[in-house]
Amino acid sequence: MKVVLIGGGSYTWTPTLAGDLMLREGLAGGHLSLVDLNAAAAEQMRRYCALMNERLGAGWTVTADSLTDALRGADVVCVSISTGGLQAMHDDYHIPEKYGIYHTVGDTVGPGGIARTLRNVPVLVDIARQMERHCPDAWMVHVTNPLSQLTRAVARRTSIRVVGLCHNYAGTMAMLAKYLDARYEDIDAVSVGVNHYTWLKDITCQGKPVADRLTLAGYEAYHRDKHMALVTNTTDDIIKEALEMKTNKEYYLNFALYEQLGYFPVGSSNHVAENLPYYCNHPEAMQKYHIRRKGVLPRRQVLIDDRKRSVEQVLAGEQPLPEMKLSHEGLSAICEALQTGRAERVMVTMPNAGQVANLPLGAAVETWAVAGRGGVDPVMSGDVPLVAFGSMLSIVGEQELAVEAALTGNREAVYQAMHISPLVQDKDRARELADELLEAGRAYLPQFFAAQQA
């Protein structure tokens, strides 16, 4: 199997994803092709991945290539990018603050999510179109935010089969396993919704319902008594360590909502809060539910610098390769299932073909799917619970308009998406906010500014 990592120069993502691929016996002897705008970073990661391959004896070929060379003969193309980088993310976070909007994550919904959609959609659609020319039967398996909007755009505009992967479900399961004093594989649930706003139904531990055990008082005791940071076995562990989030009550709102509504939201409280903006637009509510506002700079840059330094020390022989173990990221499971035909159940974002019965067909939704030699097929998962249905439809509407705007350069669609976004409470300033974000991202928005620049 030939797997392409676009954004392969990432010091955070590539060691995890590449290590997972090489740890899968069914993928031994594969070809990993790294593509990155930063050629020096891609070459560093090529050497690093070659060391991992040598350590494991996995028989992989590792190359750093141009996009065209990488796509030729590819079976799976994984995309992990951030158009505009940290500075653009910084603008997504701080410009809305001038309008009274305080992002807690800023990568999926609200003004930040809309701006990120506008920047990233043209890039992923262009990659998919090049896949149509060079590897039309390959799967795009991406981990780029906003996951739902990018999946939707690629599916709308190209023939490429596409899924998005997020580790929020794995992180939530890891927390629930620790909370219930169980193993990760003991916990199961049906999960429905859109990425970063999904809800768990039918939560079980070793096949038995646990509804009466998920209490806010229980979470308070769990948090008080735990002595180390939660290990989710995803790339989030690296980020949380760098951002010094060891003592944050990051699932407090989840337990509070479960007590009030009877369903458990997936992902940290910060992700959940942006879909229910009362919890992040009022200081008193933020304090009560332990929601934190989240900046991008400088700590994210510190994380990148630290990871780069660690890679360079390994390459120089100054420190050993870290221990490698299979993570809960889904890429390698899908690749092995496609290659060997051994079925794997994975949590994915895909266009809705009825797997979420009460959300619009075609909208990108997140549910279980089964991967095998024939592809990735979503599992029918029923309805979004009525208690979340109204807010979910608002998010889907915002995302659909943002995708339309990103694909067409229609400024009116940007204004509409901004206006209906639940996070934008002062609707009279929605256009002004949209214009300021568009201007800040001008260099990455040719669909809006190409005529002026020409």
TrEMBL record:
<keyword id="KW-0326">Glycosidase</keyword>
<dbReference type="Pfam" id="PF11975">
    <property type="entry name" value="Glyco_hydro_4C"/>
</dbReference>
<keyword id="KW-0408">Iron</keyword>
<protein>
    <recommendedName>
        <fullName>Glycosyl hydrolase family 4 C-terminal domain-containing protein</fullName>
    </recommendedName>
</protein>
<feature type="binding site">
    <location>
        <position position="145"/>
    </location>
    <ligand>
        <name>substrate</name>
    </ligand>
</feature>
<keyword id="KW-0119">Carbohydrate metabolism</keyword>
<dbReference type="InterPro" id="IPR001088">
    <property type="entry name" value="Glyco_hydro_4"/>
</dbReference>
<keyword id="KW-0520">NAD</keyword>
<dbReference type="InterPro" id="IPR053715">
    <property type="entry name" value="GH4_Enzyme_sf"/>
</dbReference>
<feature type="binding site">
    <location>
        <position position="196"/>
    </location>
    <ligand>
        <name>Mn(2+)</name>
    </ligand>
</feature>
<dbReference type="InterPro" id="IPR015955">
    <property type="entry name" value="Lactate_DH/Glyco_Ohase_4_C"/>
</dbReference>
<keyword id="KW-0464">Manganese</keyword>
<feature type="domain" description="Glycosyl hydrolase family 4 C-terminal">
    <location>
        <begin position="192"/>
        <end position="424"/>
    </location>
</feature>
<dbReference type="InterPro" id="IPR022616">
    <property type="entry name" value="Glyco_hydro_4_C"/>
</dbReference>
<dbReference type="GO" id="GO:0005975">
    <property type="term" value="P:carbohydrate metabolic process"/>
</dbReference>
<keyword id="KW-0533">Nickel</keyword>
<dbReference type="GO" id="GO:0016616">
    <property type="term" value="F:oxidoreductase activity, acting on the CH-OH group of donors, NAD or NADP as acceptor"/>
</dbReference>
<dbReference type="InterPro" id="IPR036291">
    <property type="entry name" value="NAD(P)-bd_dom_sf"/>
</dbReference>
<comment type="similarity">
    <text>Belongs to the glycosyl hydrolase 4 family.</text>
</comment>
<dbReference type="GO" id="GO:0004553">
    <property type="term" value="F:hydrolase activity, hydrolyzing O-glycosyl compounds"/>
</dbReference>
<feature type="binding site">
    <location>
        <position position="166"/>
    </location>
    <ligand>
        <name>Mn(2+)</name>
    </ligand>
</feature>
<keyword id="KW-0378">Hydrolase</keyword>
<dbReference type="GO" id="GO:0046872">
    <property type="term" value="F:metal ion binding"/>
</dbReference>
<keyword id="KW-0170">Cobalt</keyword>
<feature type="site" description="Increases basicity of active site Tyr">
    <location>
        <position position="107"/>
    </location>
</feature>
<keyword id="KW-0479">Metal-binding</keyword>
<dbReference type="Pfam" id="PF02056">
    <property type="entry name" value="Glyco_hydro_4"/>
</dbReference>
